[in-house]
Amino acid sequence: MTDSKKTRRITVPQFSEMKASAAGSSGRKISMLTAYDYAMAQLVDEAGVEGILVGDSMSMVVQGHENTLPVTLDEMIYHAEMVGRAVNHALVVVDMPFPSYHLGAHKAIENAGRILKETRCQAVKLEGGAAQAETIAALVSAGIPVMAHVGLRPQSVHQLGGYRVQRDESALLHDARAAAEAGAFAVVLECVPSSIAKSITEKVPIPTIGIGAGPDCDGQVLVLNDVLGLGSDYVPRFVKAYADLKTEVTNAARRFRDEVRDGTFPASEHEYE
Ligand code: KIV
Q: What would the pLDDT profile of 206-262 be if each residue is shown by its tens digit?
């Protein structure tokens, strides 16, 4: 292996081992953010997060769709390639879009295999626990690391009747356990009451990565656009914006417009002799 980028990244086993370090009171929790392009992935990676997710949230925050269903496998791969080229430190996981893993194990391996072959990313994520156990096992036996995603599963928004908190503790635990037993190396818990997420985190051997699942998960993931204050007007309760880029970007564009209009841009330092 001559590519130094590949050898310096956090590996899937290293990511899984962070479960043990997160368990103790002085343990360090896993941080994970989404990224969809080269520039942002580079910045997020330089910040030192342990995981970067090329999420199918791209369908909404990049492409402007109303949910995550429209984004295609080719589009995910196109963006994952950009992220894969940028990242030097974090583990990079790519969402399998709907329905790229619902048509049997063979098709799921073919599609996940394309993601790994074409993008330099290291793992895939799919939504489901018990219902996807066979597919997870098939992917893992093909050497494809899988992060599972249980609780609120946005690809099932129509079946779930909306983006609702998931409160069926035994079903959630069953799903997380089934994913771990099938070989998933980590599991996202989305929109789950904190007490249930805590109990699942104590009972499964793989890291739990929470989004709207309280402070006791082994790690946390958020959508980058939300963290940067670039989200839509509706902000879910679990989001914390660490910047207000919406205002910054609009102000910068407005100042540019004004300076073009009044002739102050370009100034002499921007001209060629
Ligand atoms: O697509 C995504 O961004 C996700 C996270 C919200 C976990 O699945």
A: 999 999 999 999 999 999 999 999 988 888 999 999 999 999 999 999 999 999 999
Question: What is the CA(119)–ligand 1 centre distance, in A?
Answer: 18
37 lies in the same domain as 124: yes
User: Cα separation of 18 and 40, whole Å?
Assistant: 25
**141 and 260 assigned to the same domain:** no
Check if the beta carbon of residue 15 is closer than 8 Å to that of residue 91: yes
CA distance 2 to 166: 45
Count: domains in the chain: 2
On whether both 248 and 119 belong to a single domain, the answer is no
Place of tokens 């310096």: 8
Which residues form the pocket of ligand 1, taking CB atoms under 6 Å from any ligand atom? 34, 53, 55-57, 95, 149, 188, 211, 221, 223
Verdict on whether the full-model pTM lies above 0.90: yes
Residue 213 and residue 127 in one domain:
yes
Q: Which residue segment(s) compose the domain that 128 sits in?
A: 4-242
The verdict on whether 190 is a catalytic residue reads: yes
Per-residue pLDDT tens over the stretch 85-117: 999 999 999 999 999 999 999 999 999 999 999
CB neighbours of residue 133 within 10 Å: 20
Task: Determine which residue's CA is closest to atom 8 belonging to ligand 1.
Answer: 55
Together in a domain, 162 and 257: no
Reported as a pLDDT band with limits 50, 70 and 90, residue 4 is: low
